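Need a sequence for this fold. Nothing fancy.
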């Protein structure tokens, strides 16, 4: 015969066993969900890296990026097309590739992005040409003024 004390012990033992089992199951599910999320991010990061490297290699002889326009890109793990943008500041041009992450919204905390920079000579030629043109113009003006002074007796 089971005593009242033994019944309480069995009850608390069973309750403890169920609690530990539930907690372990929750920890395993959380671990598996985190593992899955890391795998998804790694897959999308690989797509982003592949595209940024590809676009970084597409430059003219002067080092200017050949822009990716009008063609679809490869989707990320979540099915969103990756975004390609270019920006320029002085002689530095930047290509940026972005996965919008699982939320599908650009520029949020779950985005995966990478960028590359290229230093190029774009704009130097026109600036140099303009500067040389002004210098030549100033030289001609100086020669004319010098000749006038010589013609007028150096005054």
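Here you go.
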């Amino acid at each position: 015969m089971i005593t009242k004390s033994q019944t309480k012990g069995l009850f608390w033992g069973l309750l403890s066993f169920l609690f530990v089992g539930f907690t372990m199951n929750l920890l395993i599910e959380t671990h598996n969900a985190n593992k899955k999320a890391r795998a998804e991010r790694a897959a999308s990061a690989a797509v982003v890296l592949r595209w940024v490297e590809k676009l970084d290699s597409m430059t003219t002889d002067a080092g200017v990026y050949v822009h990716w326009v009008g063609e679809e890109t490869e989707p990320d793990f979540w099915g969103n097309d990756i975004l390609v943008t270019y920006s320029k500041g002085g002689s530095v041009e930047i290509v940026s590739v972005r996965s919008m992450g699982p939320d599908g919204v650009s520029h949020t905390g779950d985005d995966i992005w990478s960028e590359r920079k290229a230093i190029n000579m774009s704009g130097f030629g026109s600036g140099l040409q303009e500067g040389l043109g002004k210098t030549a113009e100033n030289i001609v003006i100086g020669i004319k003024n010098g000749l006038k002074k010589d013609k007028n007796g150096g005054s």
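For context: The chain has a mean pLDDT of 82.
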